[in-house]
């Protein structure tokens, strides 16, 4: 056991890959079991799909996340607020679209889709998935770089992302698009009919704050 722990400490990417090879297929299983709608007579669990999630999670996504977290920590090694915010900003603007593209492209290739099919799914689903992730991951990324030891950061992302993986699994098999939360909020609160009223109220409270 001590020898295994020593290997894991020396090569932290190994436990990260092992963790993702369990979390990804588990999330897909949960999605299939509890959230997917089946037609009458259709098989309940697609084990080939679960196998693809296992391969992708362990061999592709885990190394991708691991190397990104190391790179971000090297670029901004301090735990000051400026460095933490810089890492969060880079994570959401640079890594997030790469990671999500890897997810859709990687699994589509494993499914055997042709290049046009891979591109169509990526183009259709990436923007809204990215927008949804912007509502979730900045806070978790901040905590990860602030509180979690470097060797455990990939695993932390994996465990925090279990429900995110389940959501991605749902989006992967969804034939139509979906509306991300930020768009719903925009349509509800910042549409053309009440945008001017929001600006007016904002100005009023700012002036009131300055006067007092």
Topology:
Blueprint: H1 2-10, H2 13-35, H3 47-75, H4 81-111, H5 115-133, H6 137-147, H7 153-160, H8 162-173, H9 181-189, H10 195-211
- Large-scale geometry: globular
Give the C-alpha Rg: 21 Å
Question: Regions with pLDDT < 50 over 5+ consecutive residues?
Answer: none
Mean pLDDT: 82
Along the chain, the helix and strand elements come as: HHHHHHHHHH
Number of helices: 10
First CA to last CA: what distance?
65 Å
Total domain count = 2
What percent of the residues sit in helical stretches (DSSP H or I)? over 70%
Biggest beta sheet summary: none
Number of strands: 0
Account of the 3D structure:
The protein has 212 residues and is mainly alpha-helical. Helix 2 runs parallel beside helix 7 (153-160) and helix 4 crosses helix 6. 79% of the residues lie in helices and 0% in strands. It has helices at 2-10, 13-35, 47-75, 81-111, 115-133, 137-147, 153-160, 162-173, 181-189, 195-211. The chain folds into two domains: 12-178, no CATH class; 180-212. The N and C termini lie far apart (65 Å).
């Amino acid at each position: 056991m001590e020898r295994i722990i020593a290997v894991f400490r020396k090569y932290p990417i190994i436990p990260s890959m092992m963790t993702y090879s369990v979390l990804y297929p588990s999330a897909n299983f949960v999605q299939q079991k509890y959230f997917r709608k089946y037609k009458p007579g259709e098989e309940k669990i697609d084990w080939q799909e679960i196998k693809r999630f296992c391969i992708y999670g362990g061999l592709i996504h885990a190394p991708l996340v691991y190397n990104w977290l190391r790179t971000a920590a090297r670029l901004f090694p301090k735990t000051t607020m400026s460095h933490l915010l810089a890492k969060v900003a880079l994570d959401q603007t640079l890594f997030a679209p790469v990671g999500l593209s890897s997810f859709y492209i990687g699994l589509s290739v494993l499914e055997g889709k042709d290049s046009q099919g891979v591109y169509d799914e990526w183009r259709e689903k990436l923007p809204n998935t990215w927008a949804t992730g912007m509502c979730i991951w900045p806070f978790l990324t901040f905590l990860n770089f602030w509180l979690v030891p470097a060797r455990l950061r990939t695993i932390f992302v994996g465990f925090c992302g279990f429900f995110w993986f389940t959501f991605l699994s749902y989006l992967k098999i969804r034939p139509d698009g979906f509306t991300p939360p930020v768009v719903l909020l925009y349509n509800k609160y910042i549409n053309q009919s009440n945008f001017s009223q929001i600006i007016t109220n904002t100005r009023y409270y700012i002036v009131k704050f300055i006067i007092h």
